[in-house]
User: Fold this.
Amino acid sequence: MTASTTSVRVPRRATRSKSDESGGERRSPLAQTVVIIITVVALIYFLVPVYWLLVASTKTSSDLFGTPGFEFAKFNLFGNLAALTTYDHGIFWRWMLNSIIYSGLGSVLMTFVSVISGYALAKYRFRGRSIVLGAVLGSMLVPGTVLAQPTYVLLTHLGLVNTYAGVLIPTLVYPFGVMLAYVYAQTSIPDEILEAARLDGAGEFRAFFSIGVRLMSGGMVTILLFAFLGSWNNYLLPLLVLNDIDLVPVTVGLTGWFRQSIDIPALQGLLVVGALVSVIPVVVVFLSLQRYWRAGLSAGGVRF
Amino acid sequence: MTQAVPGQPLRLADRSPARRRSGRGSGAAPWVFLAPFIVLFLMFLVAPIVVAIGTSLFKVQKSGLGFDTASKTVFVGIQNYATALADPAFIAGFGRVLLFGIVQVPVMLALALIFALLLDSARTKFKRVLRLGVFLPFAIPGVVAALLWGFLYQPGVSPIVEGLKSIGISVDFLSSGSVLWSIANVSTWSYTGVNMIILFSALQTVPRELFEAARIDGAGELRTAFSIKVPLIAPALLLTALFSVIGTLQLFNEPTILKNLTTNITTEYTPNMAVFATTQANGNLNLGSAMAIILGLVTFILSVVVSSVSNRRGRNA
Assistant:
């Protein structure tokens, strides 16, 4: 799998974009038109649902059904937000808080575990290293949802069903994060710097926390981002593990409303605005950290 | 001396300075660093699988005549596996995700490839808009994406259904024939962007000189794309195929959510839904574990097949 790696890629990008600018040959009008059509159709397809969500969340419940979906009607976004906040004693915000706990705390811990493991694998040679690396690579192929049921079975044995810990702890195993950290540590921490630190009398822990962590900080943001998104999207495990509606993350809470909205149409309006609110933090984080996830994806891709 | 370094010759290739000076206690450091991961790995990756295998070999038997709630667990060997494999609904779920994968994965990857090539092509305008637009759905949690499309599929709310109706076309996105493709649409919408980015990153690594050479030889843009760029990023293409195949087999969120809208999605619509229904709704952990392990094995075998095909292709290229 690693055989296909192309290792010299960073410098090329710079030279390449330069020749992109200079090699300005004319494309035929037909090709130009085809490209524009593809772009426009793609943008409509990928953005219209998002646009619909924006429009729908500003509508009153009756307008949601009574007016054309892509047109704005009476602007009631704040009314909807107020209704969302008061419904069922503010259960929605409880779910958001739960999601923030699961994803925020979870991703910070996940990142720490990944970074320190990746660092150890990249910067030390020890017996058993290749076994650990193999286990990390192999476990990347074990899909999380297949593990959810066995994890649930284990949690019932441990008595952790229906607790925060039951959702939080299992998600801390994040082989993809370890792999990314391993790649980052390999490329961003020169052995000479560590060696110099050791000669100056720094212990192994000191070397990691003062040099390793600092040099890997860019990679850490990437891992944090992926870990956060991954756990924000987590659905099957909390669905299995949690019965108490006060403990569920927002994904599970909203789908519960979706199920009930068949019988209680008023919930549909709340669901729409709730979906919008639940997406906003993720989209904002995502778009503002574009640089990091693009780096992460190409690093992840190159490894294979 | 020979006793001090058993197995050492094999490791001579290690060039790390840490190795050379490993005499002074740094030998323990990597293990201390790795300890949290290893503990978590054993507890929440290895142990669940072991426990699930164990659980799958037993069965809870109710003793007494129905009024007696006492039950005992008895060893039944592979009986649960036999039961799962004899369950037509469970098997049908595999057929369904297979059909889904055969259609959805190529469509999605073809779209991702087209967009990646457009982004890579020097003279495409609106690159930033295209990249951001196609990728944005990936930032929306899969569950919310399914909710969103759920609204767009529902007659009465959906502007698409209503709009088509007003021009005399009646569509039902939730009929027994179409619902699988409505689910496929949600997956395609969500994941085309991330595949596009992976393929685009791979395209950026292709040596520029090859295009120049092709251009000098008179190859047009399309010709260059399909005869040079695509073959060269075949490994990345197969990587995305591998992840998509794994994702397809795990299909759960989208059908589970859309199930609220239509009876055409059964509780055992996909293998993962069957695992969930058996475990949670029917409370049969033993059978559920057997099903989860079957699903895991099928996924593993398919992954190995896809990656070995990819390796063979890679060698030929």
Q: What stands out?
A: The longest helix of chain B spans residues 88-120. Chain B touches chain A through 114 residues (CB under 8 Å). Chain B has 14 helices and two strands. Residues 100 and 184 of chain B are 7 Å apart (CA to CA).
